[in-house]
Specification:
Elements: E1 5-11, H1 15-26, E2 31-34, E3 46-47, E4 57-58, H2 59-72, E5 76-78, E6 82-88, E7 91-96, E8 101-109, E9 113-115, E10 131-132, H3 135-138, E11 146-150, H4 154-163, E12 169-173, H5 181-188, E13 193-195, E14 200-204, E15 211-214, E16 219-221, E17 224-227, E18 231-233, H6 235-240, E19 266-268, H7 279-302
Parallel strand pairs: 1-2, 1-8, 2-5, 8-19, 10-17, 11-12, 11-17, 12-13
Antiparallel strand pairs: 3-4, 6-7, 7-8, 9-18, 14-15, 15-16
Bound molecules: flavin-adenine dinucleotide.
Residues 11-17, 34-37, 39-42, 44-45, 47-50, 81-82, 110-112, 128, 132-134, 137, 234, 237, 270-272, 277-280, 282 line the site of flavin-adenine dinucleotide (FAD).
Length: 303
């Protein structure tokens, strides 16, 4: 059973949480990490744009190596979700799903974001095999191929425009476009084929995506589909602590360059602190948060 008072507690064991754990634990802070690796955005991803990995690497592999590395510095991992957080005096109190309570001098929030899903037949089955939630991550895999983007808002429209530099044909499937006048004009004068007033009913394919079946009865043959419906962060836990969110979308935690939030001792890193949703950003912010949390905890312990 792990000791219950820590210097640095980290919620989330994706790349941001892992890097934070490595840096904080290597500075001799007592570190505990909560979360389930299989729920990380990275778990099912194939990565081609992360520094030092020349060939495509499985996200799962990065997560496994990162955890082992953090454990060599004595970080402790608990595969449980945190269901409640609060700050009492100078300490953060955390409740796990199985009812245990832990206390920490500092807390790093690295819970990532949950991509909104289409929730149609074929989506879950073909993730990573033609179904993607990230144009920046996967556009490169579709050079010279046919792709569709589904979504109504600016993320979908800009995603479709970005894909024009890679794919042969880009369809944008939407119920109704809700973008700025400028983006609308750019989109309409581009090669993107907009299919409006409909939605995806089913993603077709056995081992990989072969096409999409639309609600208007049309079938569009594509090699990939990008679901760009935005995301929700695991923000309820943060809201409980009185954290300030970004003013524009109210979906990401505001931090400064030290990854500090508005609450002393509370840090945020990775997808949860905004775009781009990329491993490199998550790892960079995790490093900064881990170092600063460790220093903060030391000062608090000696005061
Ligand atoms: C299909 C796909 C492909 C991608 N491809 C690329 C790519 O090619 N290149 C690239 O750079 N990026 C890619 N990404 C993005 C990349 O995976 C993310 O940017 C990265 O994983 C973010 O790291 P994170 O640590 O912030 O969050 P995550 O990796 O999402 O980890 C969050 C962690 O928090 C945990 N958590 C959440 N709530 C709780 C709670 N209440 N209690 C405990 N734990 C909790 C989750 O279980 C999870 O372990 C891809 C993502 C997807 C989905």
């Amino acid at each position: 059973m792990p000791d219950k008072l820590y210097d640095v507690a980290i919620i989330g064991c994706g790349p941001a949480g892992l890097q934070a754990a490595i840096h904080a634990a290597s500075k001799k802070s007592k570190v505990i990490v909560f979360g389930k690796a299989r729920k990380s955005g990275l778990y099912k991803a194939h990565i081609a744009n992360y520094c030092c990995y020349e060939k495509v690497v499985l996200g799962k592999e990065i997560l496994e190596v990162g955890r082992k590395q953090a454990e060599t510095f004595d970080a402790i991992f608990l595969e449980e979700d945190i269901v409640r957080t609060r700050k009492e005096n100078d300490l953060f109190s955390l409740n796990t799903e199985s009812g245990e309570n832990f206390t920490s001098r500092t807390l790093i929030l690295s819970m990532g974001v949950a991509r909104n899903k289409l929730r149609v037949k074929g989506e879950k089955e073909l993730v990573g095999r033609g179904v993607s939630y990230c144009v920046d991550c996967d556009a490169n895999f579709y050079r010279g191929l046919e792709v569709a983007v589904v979504g109504n808002e600016s993320a979908a429209a800009t995603g479709a425009m970005t894909l024009l530099s890679f794919a042969k044909t880009v369809y944008l499937i939407c119920r109704k476009l809700m973008v700025t006048d400028m983006l609308y004009k750019d989109l309409r004068s581009s090669r993107v084929k907009v299919i409006e007033d409909t939605w995806v009913k089913e993603i077709i394919g056995t081992n990989e995506v072969e096409g999409v079946f639309l609600k208007n009865g049309e079938t569009v043959k594509v090699d990939g589909i990008f679901v760009e419906l935005g995301a929700k962060g695991a923000l309820e836990l943060a809201a409980n602590l009185g954290v300030i969110f970004d003013a524009e979308s109210f979906s990401f935690i505001e931090t400064n360059k030290k990854q500090e939030t508005n609450i002393p001792g509370l840090y945020a890193a990775g997808d949860i602190s905004g775009k781009p949703w990329q491993i490199a950003k998550a790892v960079g912010e995790g490093c900064v948060a881990g170092i600063n949390a460790s220093e903060y905890a030391k000062k608090l312990a000696s005061s």
